[in-house]
Specification:
This protein is of the alpha/beta class and 348 residues long. The chain has two domains: 4-150 and 314-347, Quinone Oxidoreductase, Chain A, domain 1 (Alpha-Beta Complex), CATH 3.90.180.10; 156-292, Rossmann fold (3-Layer(aba) Sandwich), CATH 3.40.50.720. Helix content is 28%, strand content 29%. Strands 3, 7, 8, 11, 12, 19 and 20 form a seven-stranded mixed β-sheet that branches. A six-stranded parallel β-sheet has the order 15-14-13-16-17-18, sandwiched between helices. The structure holds zinc ion (2 copies).
Length: 348
Protein backbone atom coordinates (compact mmCIF):
# COMPACT_ATOMS: atom_id res chain seq x y z
CA UNK A 1 0.00 0.00 0.00
CA UNK A 2 1.36 3.43 -0.90
CA UNK A 3 1.50 6.00 1.84
CA UNK A 4 -0.78 8.98 1.31
CA UNK A 5 -0.01 12.62 2.03
CA UNK A 6 -2.08 15.77 1.86
CA UNK A 7 -1.78 18.30 -0.95
CA UNK A 8 -3.80 21.35 -2.02
CA UNK A 9 -5.17 20.51 -5.45
CA UNK A 10 -6.68 23.06 -7.83
CA UNK A 11 -9.37 21.03 -9.62
CA UNK A 12 -10.54 23.93 -11.80
CA UNK A 13 -10.57 27.71 -11.41
CA UNK A 14 -11.70 28.64 -7.88
CA UNK A 15 -12.03 25.01 -6.81
CA UNK A 16 -9.11 24.36 -4.49
CA UNK A 17 -9.13 21.80 -1.72
CA UNK A 18 -6.93 19.52 0.37
CA UNK A 19 -6.73 16.05 -1.17
CA UNK A 20 -4.86 12.84 -0.50
CA UNK A 21 -2.12 12.07 -3.00
CA UNK A 22 0.62 9.45 -3.14
CA UNK A 23 3.73 10.06 -1.07
CA UNK A 24 6.54 10.78 -3.55
CA UNK A 25 9.86 8.94 -3.30
CA UNK A 26 13.34 10.35 -3.88
CA UNK A 27 15.08 8.72 -6.83
CA UNK A 28 18.80 8.91 -7.60
CA UNK A 29 20.06 12.51 -7.33
CA UNK A 30 16.82 13.65 -5.72
CA UNK A 31 15.73 14.67 -2.24
CA UNK A 32 12.43 14.21 -0.44
CA UNK A 33 11.52 17.49 1.22
CA UNK A 34 9.07 18.06 4.07
CA UNK A 35 7.59 21.39 2.96
CA UNK A 36 7.66 24.13 5.63
CA UNK A 37 6.81 27.44 3.94
CA UNK A 38 5.41 28.48 0.56
CA UNK A 39 4.78 32.06 -0.52
CA UNK A 40 1.89 32.91 -2.81
CA UNK A 41 2.87 34.48 -6.11
CA UNK A 42 0.76 36.54 -8.48
CA UNK A 43 1.01 33.63 -10.93
CA UNK A 44 -0.58 31.22 -8.41
CA UNK A 45 -3.48 33.64 -8.02
CA UNK A 46 -3.90 33.92 -11.81
CA UNK A 47 -4.10 30.13 -12.18
CA UNK A 48 -6.46 29.93 -9.21
CA UNK A 49 -8.85 32.62 -10.44
CA UNK A 50 -8.59 32.40 -14.24
CA UNK A 51 -7.09 28.96 -14.81
CA UNK A 52 -4.46 30.37 -17.16
CA UNK A 53 -1.62 32.78 -17.79
CA UNK A 54 -1.31 33.44 -21.52
CA UNK A 55 -0.50 30.14 -23.20
CA UNK A 56 -0.15 28.24 -19.93
CA UNK A 57 -3.53 26.70 -19.24
CA UNK A 58 -4.67 24.54 -16.32
CA UNK A 59 -6.12 21.56 -18.22
CA UNK A 60 -6.03 19.00 -15.43
CA UNK A 61 -5.91 19.24 -11.62
CA UNK A 62 -2.69 20.91 -10.48
CA UNK A 63 -0.88 21.60 -7.23
CA UNK A 64 0.15 25.28 -7.09
CA UNK A 65 3.04 26.92 -5.20
CA UNK A 66 6.65 27.52 -6.25
CA UNK A 67 8.21 29.75 -3.56
CA UNK A 68 9.31 26.94 -1.30
CA UNK A 69 11.45 26.03 1.66
CA UNK A 70 11.50 22.84 3.71
CA UNK A 71 13.47 20.22 5.52
CA UNK A 72 15.23 17.23 3.95
CA UNK A 73 13.32 14.08 4.92
CA UNK A 74 15.29 11.62 2.80
CA UNK A 75 18.11 11.76 0.28
CA UNK A 76 18.21 9.66 -2.87
CA UNK A 77 21.12 7.60 -4.10
CA UNK A 78 24.23 9.60 -4.92
CA UNK A 79 23.26 12.76 -3.02
CA UNK A 80 26.22 13.83 -0.90
CA UNK A 81 25.84 17.56 -0.18
CA UNK A 82 22.57 17.29 1.77
CA UNK A 83 21.41 15.12 4.65
CA UNK A 84 18.23 14.41 6.56
CA UNK A 85 17.18 17.40 8.68
CA UNK A 86 18.91 20.06 6.53
CA UNK A 87 16.92 23.22 5.88
CA UNK A 88 16.66 23.99 2.18
CA UNK A 89 15.20 26.48 -0.27
CA UNK A 90 14.00 24.94 -3.54
CA UNK A 91 14.77 26.56 -6.88
CA UNK A 92 11.54 25.69 -8.73
CA UNK A 93 12.72 25.47 -12.34
CA UNK A 94 14.39 22.27 -13.49
CA UNK A 95 16.05 22.91 -16.85
CA UNK A 96 16.86 20.08 -19.28
CA UNK A 97 20.61 20.61 -18.94
CA UNK A 98 21.27 19.57 -22.54
CA UNK A 99 19.99 22.31 -24.87
CA UNK A 100 22.06 25.16 -26.27
CA UNK A 101 20.59 27.59 -23.69
CA UNK A 102 21.44 25.31 -20.79
CA UNK A 103 24.90 24.56 -22.15
CA UNK A 104 25.68 28.24 -22.72
CA UNK A 105 24.70 29.18 -19.17
CA UNK A 106 21.23 30.58 -19.82
CA UNK A 107 19.34 27.79 -18.12
CA UNK A 108 16.47 30.15 -17.23
CA UNK A 109 15.77 30.32 -20.96
CA UNK A 110 15.62 26.53 -21.41
CA UNK A 111 12.52 25.73 -23.49
CA UNK A 112 12.15 22.36 -21.77
CA UNK A 113 12.21 23.62 -18.19
CA UNK A 114 9.90 21.92 -15.72
CA UNK A 115 8.79 24.70 -13.40
CA UNK A 116 6.77 24.14 -10.22
CA UNK A 117 3.13 25.14 -10.58
CA UNK A 118 3.39 25.98 -14.26
CA UNK A 119 1.03 23.64 -16.12
CA UNK A 120 1.37 20.72 -16.50
CA UNK A 121 3.88 20.54 -13.62
CA UNK A 122 2.79 20.35 -10.00
CA UNK A 123 4.01 22.77 -7.36
CA UNK A 124 4.65 22.44 -3.66
CA UNK A 125 1.43 22.98 -1.69
CA UNK A 126 1.84 19.51 -0.23
CA UNK A 127 3.27 17.89 2.85
CA UNK A 128 6.19 16.41 0.91
CA UNK A 129 7.75 17.01 -2.50
CA UNK A 130 10.60 15.38 -4.39
CA UNK A 131 13.17 17.67 -5.99
CA UNK A 132 16.55 17.32 -7.75
CA UNK A 133 19.22 17.78 -5.07
CA UNK A 134 21.19 20.19 -7.27
CA UNK A 135 18.26 22.63 -7.10
CA UNK A 136 17.88 22.35 -3.31
CA UNK A 137 20.05 24.90 -1.51
CA UNK A 138 21.02 24.51 2.12
CA UNK A 139 19.95 27.33 4.43
CA UNK A 140 21.98 28.29 7.51
CA UNK A 141 20.24 27.48 10.81
CA UNK A 142 19.51 31.13 11.61
CA UNK A 143 17.65 31.69 8.33
CA UNK A 144 13.98 30.89 8.85
CA UNK A 145 11.78 28.82 6.55
CA UNK A 146 9.71 31.85 5.57
CA UNK A 147 12.89 33.71 4.64
CA UNK A 148 13.88 30.62 2.65
CA UNK A 149 10.59 30.79 0.75
CA UNK A 150 11.26 34.46 -0.06
CA UNK A 151 14.44 33.52 -1.94
CA UNK A 152 12.38 32.73 -5.03
CA UNK A 153 10.89 36.21 -5.49
CA UNK A 154 14.15 37.82 -4.28
CA UNK A 155 15.91 35.92 -7.06
CA UNK A 156 13.97 37.90 -9.64
CA UNK A 157 15.23 41.12 -8.05
CA UNK A 158 18.81 39.87 -8.02
CA UNK A 159 18.62 38.84 -11.67
CA UNK A 160 17.08 42.24 -12.56
CA UNK A 161 19.88 44.08 -10.72
CA UNK A 162 22.45 41.97 -12.57
CA UNK A 163 20.77 42.51 -15.94
CA UNK A 164 20.83 46.26 -15.28
CA UNK A 165 24.51 46.18 -14.31
CA UNK A 166 23.72 47.96 -11.04
CA UNK A 167 26.85 48.72 -9.03
CA UNK A 168 28.38 51.15 -6.57
CA UNK A 169 26.65 54.51 -6.88
CA UNK A 170 24.27 53.56 -9.69
CA UNK A 171 21.28 55.83 -10.02
CA UNK A 172 18.33 53.52 -10.35
CA UNK A 173 14.67 54.07 -11.16
CA UNK A 174 12.18 51.34 -10.25
CA UNK A 175 8.66 51.66 -11.66
CA UNK A 176 6.14 49.80 -9.50
CA UNK A 177 6.57 48.76 -5.86
CA UNK A 178 4.63 45.50 -5.81
CA UNK A 179 6.40 42.39 -4.50
CA UNK A 180 8.80 42.28 -7.48
CA UNK A 181 9.53 46.01 -7.46
CA UNK A 182 10.33 45.75 -3.75
CA UNK A 183 12.68 42.76 -4.05
CA UNK A 184 14.37 44.59 -6.93
CA UNK A 185 14.79 47.54 -4.61
CA UNK A 186 16.40 45.28 -1.98
CA UNK A 187 18.77 43.84 -4.57
CA UNK A 188 19.65 47.27 -6.01
CA UNK A 189 20.44 48.56 -2.52
CA UNK A 190 22.60 45.50 -1.75
CA UNK A 191 24.40 45.99 -5.08
CA UNK A 192 25.43 49.48 -3.98
CA UNK A 193 23.01 51.75 -5.84
CA UNK A 194 23.49 55.39 -4.78
CA UNK A 195 20.05 56.62 -5.75
CA UNK A 196 16.95 54.43 -5.83
CA UNK A 197 13.87 56.31 -6.96
CA UNK A 198 10.61 54.39 -6.95
CA UNK A 199 7.43 55.38 -8.81
CA UNK A 200 4.40 53.91 -7.05
CA UNK A 201 0.86 55.24 -6.70
CA UNK A 202 -0.36 53.23 -3.73
CA UNK A 203 0.42 54.83 -0.36
CA UNK A 204 1.18 51.58 1.54
CA UNK A 205 3.59 50.35 -1.14
CA UNK A 206 5.24 53.77 -1.39
CA UNK A 207 5.75 53.72 2.39
CA UNK A 208 7.17 50.19 2.21
CA UNK A 209 9.61 51.28 -0.52
CA UNK A 210 10.90 54.07 1.73
CA UNK A 211 11.12 51.69 4.69
CA UNK A 212 13.19 49.26 2.60
CA UNK A 213 15.69 51.88 1.50
CA UNK A 214 14.35 53.82 -1.50
CA UNK A 215 15.98 57.27 -1.54
CA UNK A 216 12.92 58.88 -3.15
CA UNK A 217 9.39 57.83 -3.93
CA UNK A 218 7.30 59.57 -6.58
CA UNK A 219 3.59 58.96 -6.06
CA UNK A 220 2.46 60.67 -9.23
CA UNK A 221 1.81 59.19 -12.69
CA UNK A 222 1.86 62.59 -14.37
CA UNK A 223 4.63 62.41 -16.99
CA UNK A 224 5.61 66.10 -16.73
CA UNK A 225 5.72 65.94 -12.95
CA UNK A 226 7.80 62.76 -12.99
CA UNK A 227 10.26 64.31 -15.46
CA UNK A 228 10.63 67.41 -13.29
CA UNK A 229 11.22 65.34 -10.18
CA UNK A 230 13.66 62.91 -11.82
CA UNK A 231 15.62 65.83 -13.31
CA UNK A 232 15.92 67.27 -9.83
CA UNK A 233 17.04 63.93 -8.36
CA UNK A 234 19.63 63.22 -11.08
CA UNK A 235 20.80 66.82 -11.68
CA UNK A 236 19.24 66.67 -15.16
CA UNK A 237 21.55 63.79 -15.99
CA UNK A 238 19.01 60.96 -15.99
CA UNK A 239 19.10 57.50 -14.41
CA UNK A 240 21.76 54.92 -15.21
CA UNK A 241 19.24 52.11 -15.02
CA UNK A 242 15.45 51.90 -15.04
CA UNK A 243 13.80 48.66 -13.96
CA UNK A 244 10.20 48.33 -15.09
CA UNK A 245 8.26 46.25 -12.54
CA UNK A 246 4.72 47.57 -13.02
CA UNK A 247 3.67 46.10 -16.37
CA UNK A 248 2.11 49.47 -17.20
CA UNK A 249 2.81 50.88 -20.67
CA UNK A 250 3.18 54.50 -19.53
CA UNK A 251 5.86 53.43 -17.03
CA UNK A 252 8.00 52.04 -19.86
CA UNK A 253 7.44 55.23 -21.89
CA UNK A 254 8.48 57.33 -18.90
CA UNK A 255 11.55 55.17 -18.25
CA UNK A 256 12.86 55.90 -21.77
CA UNK A 257 12.49 59.62 -21.13
CA UNK A 258 14.24 59.69 -17.78
CA UNK A 259 17.17 57.38 -18.57
CA UNK A 260 20.55 58.99 -19.14
CA UNK A 261 22.25 58.71 -22.53
CA UNK A 262 23.70 55.23 -22.62
CA UNK A 263 21.29 54.04 -19.92
CA UNK A 264 19.74 50.60 -19.56
CA UNK A 265 16.06 49.72 -19.38
CA UNK A 266 15.30 46.36 -17.76
CA UNK A 267 11.86 44.83 -18.32
CA UNK A 268 10.61 42.64 -15.47
CA UNK A 269 6.84 43.24 -15.37
CA UNK A 270 4.55 41.51 -17.85
CA UNK A 271 2.33 43.91 -19.78
CA UNK A 272 -1.36 43.25 -20.17
CA UNK A 273 -1.38 45.74 -23.06
CA UNK A 274 1.02 44.08 -25.51
CA UNK A 275 1.52 46.96 -27.91
CA UNK A 276 2.82 50.09 -26.23
CA UNK A 277 3.89 53.09 -28.35
CA UNK A 278 7.57 53.82 -27.76
CA UNK A 279 9.91 56.61 -28.79
CA UNK A 280 12.10 54.30 -30.86
CA UNK A 281 14.42 57.10 -31.93
CA UNK A 282 15.31 57.69 -28.30
CA UNK A 283 16.83 54.20 -28.25
CA UNK A 284 19.12 55.14 -31.13
CA UNK A 285 19.83 58.72 -30.18
CA UNK A 286 20.43 58.02 -26.48
CA UNK A 287 22.08 54.68 -27.26
CA UNK A 288 19.88 52.87 -24.76
CA UNK A 289 20.16 49.19 -23.89
CA UNK A 290 17.01 47.11 -23.41
CA UNK A 291 17.16 43.93 -21.35
CA UNK A 292 14.56 41.39 -20.34
CA UNK A 293 14.28 39.40 -17.13
CA UNK A 294 12.76 35.93 -17.32
CA UNK A 295 12.83 34.28 -13.93
CA UNK A 296 16.54 34.05 -12.86
CA UNK A 297 19.66 31.95 -12.88
CA UNK A 298 22.40 31.27 -10.35
CA UNK A 299 20.72 33.49 -7.78
CA UNK A 300 20.00 31.10 -4.90
CA UNK A 301 23.51 31.04 -3.38
CA UNK A 302 23.68 34.84 -3.68
CA UNK A 303 20.26 35.32 -2.10
CA UNK A 304 21.14 32.98 0.77
CA UNK A 305 24.41 34.87 1.46
CA UNK A 306 22.64 38.22 1.40
CA UNK A 307 19.87 37.10 3.74
CA UNK A 308 22.18 35.14 6.07
CA UNK A 309 24.55 38.11 6.43
CA UNK A 310 21.69 40.51 7.11
CA UNK A 311 22.49 42.62 4.04
CA UNK A 312 18.98 41.93 2.82
CA UNK A 313 15.96 41.63 5.09
CA UNK A 314 12.98 40.09 3.29
CA UNK A 315 10.80 39.77 6.40
CA UNK A 316 9.01 43.15 6.10
CA UNK A 317 7.57 41.99 2.76
CA UNK A 318 5.60 39.22 4.47
CA UNK A 319 2.41 41.04 5.44
CA UNK A 320 0.23 38.06 6.40
CA UNK A 321 0.69 34.36 7.22
CA UNK A 322 -1.71 31.41 6.95
CA UNK A 323 -1.42 27.77 7.97
CA UNK A 324 -0.91 25.87 4.71
CA UNK A 325 -4.16 23.92 4.97
CA UNK A 326 -5.94 27.29 4.71
CA UNK A 327 -4.34 27.81 1.31
CA UNK A 328 -7.71 28.64 -0.26
CA UNK A 329 -8.17 31.47 2.27
CA UNK A 330 -4.58 32.53 1.65
CA UNK A 331 -5.20 32.57 -2.10
CA UNK A 332 -8.44 34.56 -1.65
CA UNK A 333 -6.57 37.00 0.55
CA UNK A 334 -3.81 37.44 -2.05
CA UNK A 335 -6.51 38.06 -4.67
CA UNK A 336 -9.04 40.22 -2.84
CA UNK A 337 -6.70 42.10 -0.54
CA UNK A 338 -3.96 42.64 -3.15
CA UNK A 339 -3.93 46.37 -2.42
CA UNK A 340 -2.97 45.86 1.21
CA UNK A 341 -0.80 42.76 1.04
CA UNK A 342 2.72 42.44 -0.28
CA UNK A 343 3.53 38.76 0.29
CA UNK A 344 1.00 36.24 1.57
CA UNK A 345 2.94 33.39 3.20
CA UNK A 346 1.76 29.91 4.16
CA UNK A 347 3.46 27.75 6.80
CA UNK A 348 3.37 24.07 7.72
ZN1 LIG B 1 6.65 33.58 -8.26
ZN1 LIG C 1 17.71 23.17 -21.61
Amino acid sequence: MTTKIKAAVLEQPNVLGIKEVDMPKAGPGEVLVKVKAVGICGSDVHYYIEGRIGDYIVEKPIILGHETSGEIAEVGEGVTHLKKGDKVALEPGIPCGCCIQCKSGYYNLCADVKFHATPPYDGTFAQYVVHPAQFAFKLPDHVSFVEGAMIEPLSVGIHAARQGGIGLGSRVLITGAGPIGLVTLLAAKAAGAGVITVIEGKANRAAMALQLGATNVIQSFDAAEILKETNRITDNFGFDVAIECSGAGPAAQTAIKVLKRGGTLVFVGLFSQLEVPMDLNAITQKELTFKGVFRYKNTYPTAIDLIASGRIDVKPLITVRFPWEKVKDAMDCAHKDAHNQIKVMTEW
